[in-house]
Amino acid sequence: MTNKTPVIYVIPHINVGGVEKILLDSCHFLAENGWQTIVISNGGRMESKFPKSTQHIRLPVHSKNPFVMFINAIKIANICRKMGAVPILHALSRAPAWSCLLAKKWVQCHFITSFQAVYGHDGLKLHYSAVMTRADKIITISQFLNRHIQKIYHIPAEKIAVLYNAVNMNQFNNEPLAVARKELIFKQLPYYDPINQKLFIMVGRLGHTKGHELLIRAIGYIAQNHPQCDLSHYHFAMVGVGDMGSKIAELTQLAQEVGCVSLSFYPFIDDLSGLYKLSDCVLSCSTQPEGFGLTQIEAGASGVPVIAPTFPDDDWGPSPEIINDGQTGLLFHANNIEHLAQKILEFMAMPRESQKNMGALAHQRVKQNFTTTIFAEQLSKFYNNLINNH
């Protein structure tokens, strides 16, 4: 059955990223269930992966130039006018949201935003970020962000819907890897000894909030204060850090200074889902709260426990929504080197069977709560409710 209400997504780019992955899976689900989907973006590497029925319109909606944003608004309004029914206009970032907000003044549409992160909210940044709260309805990806929106932007709870970020279980799962696939991954990890070492990975580009330095200092703390722990039996891989030579050199020097051994950087990895399966533990060390821990559910789906941060205020960040501490992973106090080191040591000391059981429970938790199928079904229901109530 075809749904006559078109859904128009507006996103800066469609390169590889968490938001883009969710959008891709949503478009496939909606297309299979009769929805018409249109994506407006500045293009990207994932463009060819969308369903054939999804129309892509290229506009410079990544731009924060006010004049460009105004022209984008005119063009988005014209696209809405050409639809056979009142469209859902769904903005996935702040710059596109400003163009969509202006377009809504000129044309009838259901305006939705996805509030994906803790955006800057100091001074003028608060006004710029507040555009994400000026839609008819707001979708956010965690209860942590739900509380944040209500607290910082004074938005009533009934205007917000929480749809948890999700992972595609066809891509990330705990099924065994073929030998050939393992060998290809090992070739990309030349400093890792799969026979004699356990593998701990941290996934994410280098950035001041990702916690790479924090992890290095925690490993150094273990080396200096727990000499009985032979770190040569472990390999710590910082994966997907990107091509940032100067920053990598700086962190490598820090690792040498604090005695952090068996640490290596891998700018890119071709088979991330396979790498998760080969890992013993995934480390999430963000120094500021994120909107949702996508890496945490990717690891969990793969049957791998995660060590992740909680934050010492009334919000705590999203990790406790994903991880049951001591059951599906371990939680440490954010920005606390010693506590992170303690949790790493705690995991290292666990019997292998206990580690496997923790990974199996993490897999079940993700399967029951954080899959793209669950997300897409909830999104479709959300859209139908929106249409029927307006």
Task: Produce a short descriptive summary.
This protein has 390 residues and is of the alpha/beta class. It has helices at residues 18-32, 66-81, 94-106, 124-129, 143-153, 179-187, 212-225, 245-258, 272-278, 294-301, 319-322, 337-349, 352-369, 372-388; strands at 7-10, 37-41, 55-58, 88-91, 110-115, 137-140, 160-162, 198-203, 234-239, 263-266, 281-283, 306-310, 329-333.
Strand content: 15-25%
Number of strands: 13
**Number of self-contained structural domains:** 2
String of helices and strands: EHEEHEHEHEHEHEHEHEHEHEHEHHH
Named CATH topology of the largest domain: Rossmann fold
**Structural class, please?**
alpha/beta
Could you please describe the fold and organization of this structure?
With 390 residues, the protein is α/β, with parallel strands linked by helices. The protein contains 14 helices and 13 strands. It has a seven-stranded parallel β-sheet, with helices on both faces. Helix 11 links the parallel strand 12 (306-310) and strand 13 (329-333).
Q: Topology of this protein?
A:
Blueprint: E1 7-10, H1 18-32, E2 37-41, E3 55-58, H2 66-81, E4 88-91, H3 94-106, E5 110-115, H4 124-129, E6 137-140, H5 143-153, E7 160-162, H6 179-187, E8 198-203, H7 212-225, E9 234-239, H8 245-258, E10 263-266, H9 272-278, E11 281-283, H10 294-301, E12 306-310, H11 319-322, E13 329-333, H12 337-349, H13 352-369, H14 372-388
Parallel strand pairs: 1-2, 1-4, 2-3, 4-5, 5-6, 6-7, 8-9, 8-11, 9-10, 11-12, 12-13
